[in-house]
Amino acid sequence: MSANIARLYRDVCLTAHFSDSWGDEPKDRSSKLYVKSNWQPPAPPQELYVRVMGLINAIEDGLQGRKAMPNLLPFQEDLLASFQASDKLIFAQADKGLGTCAVTYEQYVQDVLDNHLLDEKGYQLLTEEEAWQRATAAKKSIFEWLTTNRRLINDDAWNFVYKKTSENSVDPFGRLYILYKIHKKPLKTRPVCSDCASITHALGKWIDEQLQPIFKAQETYIKNSFELKLELEDLVLAGNVSLFKYDAIAMYVNINTDACLEELSGYLHDPRTREAFPHYEPAMLMDAIELVMRNNIMMFGDIFALQIQGVAMGISPAPPIASIFYSIFEARMLPRWKHRVSFVRRFIDDGIVIWNHASVLPAVLPL
Question: What is the residue-averaged pLDDT of the chain?
Answer without folding.
Answer: 90
